[in-house]
Design goal:
Layout: H1 3-16, E1 25-30, H2 34-45, E2 49-55, H3 59-69, E3 76-77, H4 80-87, E4 91-94, H5 101-110, E5 114-117, H6 125-138, E6 142-144, H7 152-165, E7 168-176, H8 196-213, E8 217-225, E9 237-244, E10 249-255, E11 264-271, E12 274-278, E13 285-288, E14 295-297, H9 308-323, H10 332-351, E15 355-356, H11 357-363
Parallel strand pairs: 1-2, 1-4, 2-3, 4-5, 5-6, 7-10
Antiparallel strand pairs: 7-11, 8-9, 8-15, 9-10, 11-12, 12-13, 13-14
Length: 371
């Protein structure tokens, strides 16, 4: 079957809802750095996936995969194109810096594979839109690694809003951190990238508002800032006011350049029948009622941060892929709305003016069905 006909056939099967692959899902891991090591571990541990290859230009990263997980030397590649040709994977997990995602994604789709990419898809909206359009044109499935949606705190908050505390009206989110961007074990590229806090961290928080509240931002004001003592080349602080659907107002502040080592995290949402209060980034969710000053803790399971939420996301995506879901959650199309909001914050900071999201989508040529 010619490649063009194969892509058309794959697209037709997706539309019909039948599964285009069998378990375990043959998975190619691209980028074996800090985040890629999490993915390598989880793809090995998840019964529905199996690794078929490892890609990284750094031989030390490939050596880690061989030493830690017994990767065969023949399954280790410095070139993505070479790996795609040799392994013919069902799924590619892309854990590389966003600056190269457009070309990498297009190569994945051309090879007939589905893609699970780390966020952000790119550092500009046009690039993210191009990746989504490429996936749709190829009939391939595109998922984005929004693992914070799978945190127990997030899922519990979403359930409590739907079942107990009711419709949210206003919220305040504070993330105050001194992040040492040079310490071992974390990605170093944020030190020199443009708007590192906004595109690497705040993008997660902005996505949480959309997902947890089941609401969309209609207008955003934003100001970004970098203090004199910051180790980051560009702004490491983001302050934004989000006007969301149904009159919901969210006040957001996030920084990587706090002056103390103590982290401050506080997310409060006031709703029709009470309030949700989260006092730690991954834990300590409480409910408060209008007639009581007592905050009642919500029972949550213990987790390994950044791992168990990613584990849950991978398992969910794998099940959706095997079930033939055309656009598995978290989809590339859905991520466009979070990416649009992130870029709108960037625009607002540059112009000093609010950004109306309906106008943003119009200016950037986003199809009506994707808004």
């Amino acid at each position: 079957m010619h490649a063009r006909n194969a892509d058309a056939h794959a697209a037709a099967r997706l539309k019909e809802g039948s599964s285009p692959m069998d378990a375990p899902i043959r998975t190619l891991l691209v980028g074996i750095g800090t985040r890629g090591r999490h993915w390598t571990r989880l793809v090995h541990e998840e019964p529905l996936t199996t690794p078929v290859g490892y890609v990284d230009p750094d031989e030390r990263a490939l050596a880690w995969a061989r030493d830690t997980y017994g990767a065969h030397p023949d399954d280790c590649y410095e070139s993505l194109v070479q790996a795609l040709r040799a392994t013919q994977p069902d799924l590619v997990v892309l854990a590389t810096p966003p600056m190269g995602h457009v070309e990498e994604a297009e190569a994945v789709f051309a090879a007939g594979a589905d893609l699970l990419a780390e966020k952000p898809l790119t550092l500009d909206f046009a690039g993210s839109l191009r990746i989504v359009q490429a996936a749709e044109a190829a009939g391939r499935r595109l998922m984005v690694g929004l693992n914070f949606r799978y945190l127990p705190t997030t899922l519990a908050a979403k359930r409590l809003i739907a079942e107990e505390v009711g419709k949210p009206s206003f919220a305040r989110f504070i993330y105050w951190l001194n992040r040492d961007g040079r310490r071992p074990g974390i990605n170093k590229y944020p030190l020199t990238m443009r708007q590192p806090m906004l595109y690497e961290q705040s993008i997660h928080h902005l996505d949480l508002f959309r997902f947890t509240y089941d609401a969309e931002v209609e207008r955003v004001w934003c100001r970004c800032h970098n203090p004199p003592w910051s180790m980051y080349a560009d702004d490491a602080t983001v302050a934004a006011l989000l006007e969301m659907s149904d009159g919901l107002l969210v006040n957001y502040f996030g920084t990587w350049s706090g002056q103390t080592k103590a982290q401050e995290f506080h997310w409060r949402t006031d709703c029709a029948n009470g309030a949700l209060l989260q006092h730690e980034q991954f834990a300590d969710l409480r409910v408060a009622r209008p007639d009581s000053a007592v905050e009642t803790p919500v029972e949550l399971p213990p987790i390994e941060n950044f791992v168990d939420d990613t584990r849950a996301m991978l398992a969910d995506i794998a099940r959706q892929l095997l079930a033939g879901v055309a656009r598995p959650h978290p989809s590339g199309i859905d991520h466009l709305k979070t990416m649009a909001l992130t870029v709108a914050c960037d625009e607002s900071n540059v112009t000093g003016q609010p950004v109306v999201m309906a106008e943003f989508y119009e200016r950037h040529g986003v199809p009506e069905a994707w808004r």
